[in-house]
Amino acid sequence: MSGTANDAELTPELAATIAAAFAKRDRANMGPTIEFFERLLAQHPGNPYVLYEVGGSYDTAGQEDTAIEYYGKALPGLSGVIRQRCLLQYGSSLRNLGRYDESRQVLEQARAEFPDSDSLRVFAALTAHASGHPDQALGALLELIADRVDSAEIKRYEPAIRGHAAALAPG
Question: Does residue 123 form part of some domain?
């Protein structure tokens, strides 16, 4: 099946194969999952969805340096929620490697493409914190709380929460 036009697609069959492998993974022992996705990539060379899954497997195994190579190769061919996840994981891996400026750039790009993503907001805050900007991180999380937590208590104090968020992370 290698070398076909379908190699860049996420066919229903490939999606089912990926989902089945994902369901079987053992986060404490990612070796078999990595091996499975590496074999799947050999069958579908260059497929961005498989590249993403290979990267994610290495990422879960704590091998971010390898993961980012796969994420970078996958991104140009991805769209929708899988692209959003790949950008988040790519940015997170860069942060874990101490590459904060690159992490921030990837996450800013992701937030521009997916402005309604709460998870991207959280991971951007993690990068801000890790890169020595804890006030910015806390401000961003307070803003997220004010935007998304629908409780009477939060709504009662929403103006104060937003005020603190603006003071911590102006602009």
Answer: no
What's the pTM? 0.91
21 and 36 in contact (C-beta within 8 Å)? Answer: yes
Segments in the chain forming alpha helices (H): 12-24, 31-43, 48-60, 64-74, 80-96, 100-113, 118-130, 134-148, 152-156, 158-168
The number of distinct structural domains making up the chain is 1
φ, ψ dihedrals at 5, nearest 5°: -60, -25
pLDDT single digits (tens) 154-170: 999 999 999 999 999 88
Tens of pLDDT, residues 1-23: 344 444 678 899 999 999 999 89
For residue 148, tell me if it sits in a domain. yes
Mean pLDDT of the chain: 94
Other Cβ atoms closer than 10 A to 35 = 11
The answer to whether residue 77 sits within a structural domain is no
